[in-house]
Design a protein that fits this description.
6 strands, alpha+beta, 26% helix, six-stranded antiparallel β-sheet
């Protein structure tokens, strides 16, 4: 009997409260609608989308304006050959020898780039060169040819499409010439 009493009390209480709760929920929904409705001073989503698309249109693949970049690179090359050592005296061969020879070239280069504009980057490259000949035990330590570069991208980068970039370089004659060699030192 107690169970039936408790169940009945719960049903009657719930039935009496349901209309009040439904009215309270309708009031809350109306208040939420008003709160979420567009107010004065709120930005329009179309304006925000337009700003995002305009910002995306001006992408360039070069360095951004005012940014710096310093890079280091190392190059190594090896040239090996066989030299004939031939001594001819009075028309006869006195000495014939095959001598291996190798030249090692090491280049340490520092490159500096600066973003002058979003679509214009300028830079310079300073190589430090070491050459070593194993046969004659000669070596050279010197600067290579210093170069200046410019890269210009006339059109903004569009994903999925080819990007156009113009590139130019100017090399100075600061390095050791491979054609003007002092055979006793180099």
């Amino acid at each position: 009997m107690n169970r039936w009493f408790v169940r009945g009390f719960i049903l009657v209480s719930a039935a009496g409260l349901l209309p009040g709760m439904a009215m309270a929920q309708e009031g809350n929904v109306d208040q939420a609608r008003e709160a979420l409705a567009r107010q004065e001073g709120d930005e329009d989503s179309t304006k925000q989308l337009e700003e995002v698309f305009q910002a995306a249109e001006k992408n360039y693949s070069l360095q951004k304006k005012g940014t710096h970049s310093l890079n280091y690179s190392f190059d190594y090359s090896y040239t090996g050959d066989q030299r004939l050592d031939l001594a001819i005296t009075n028309g006869s061969v006195r000495n014939l020898d095959v001598v291996p020879s190798a030249t090692h070239n090491f280049t340490n280069a520092f490159s500096y780039d600066y973003g002058l504009l979003d679509n214009l980057t300028i830079g310079t490259r300073v190589p430090l060169v070491v050459k070593y000949d194993t046969q004659d035990e000669l070596n050279v330590y010197d600067f290579g040819d210093i170069s200046f570069t410019g890269r210009w991208q006339p059109f903004a980068y569009v994903p999925g499409k080819m990007s156009t970039t113009f590139f130019g370089t100017l090399s100075s004659k600061t390095g050791v010439s491979p054609y003007e060699i002092d055979l006793n030192e180099q």
